[in-house]
Amino acid sequence: MTGLIPPEGAYQVILDVLQVFLPLLIFFFAFQVLYLKLPIRYIANILKGVLLTFFGMILFIWGINIAFLPLGTEIGACIGGLERFWLLIPFGFLMGFLATFAEPAVRVLSRQIEDSSGGYIKRSLILYTLSLGVAFFVALGMAKIVYGIPFQYIVIPGYLLALILLRLSDRDFTAIAFDSGGVASGPMAVTFLMSMAVGAAAAIEGRSPIPDGFGMIALIMLAPVLSVMLVGILFRLKGGRPA
Fold this sequence. Notes:
single chain
């Protein structure tokens, strides 16, 4: 395995990032001309940030293709090839926690929640709640692979439980819970945890990478919904937002 993406792969990464940025820039400049009328110095700062983000996304996606996808697959295949398959479960818990804890979007969401709530909901509470929730469900996903548990036996009861918790949880936490599902299933989870599950399923005899390896992202999206709403129930029992 080479240490760099072939040139055609690099060109594709740049093209993908351009397809994201160009429409945003077109909309911004259209609003700037028609409505915003921001000063030139402000526009210059925005363009500096856009340029840094543009190159950052290229390097980030490039790094994912070079490292995280093959690394996750190799780690999953390595542990799946051991005689003690059950080790995948605690290892999945650990990797799920670390991947979510390191997810940039999770930290951004946690900070925004603390700022928007005036410090009522601490960023550390959201960060650790999401990390532990995802860790549990990644471990559950690994148990699904190890013991051949049908995917619907996990996901259907999970979403039914989410509907029940909607009625019980503090309303401040319900919207946060569902937004958290999209945030937690960010690039770290999709690239590393999913590839690890696929690699493990491919290495275990009697398992298939397609029906057994995939489905991990659905569980990761469900994890924050349930964990945040459970925290919302605790806040509701404490009496809700203070006056």
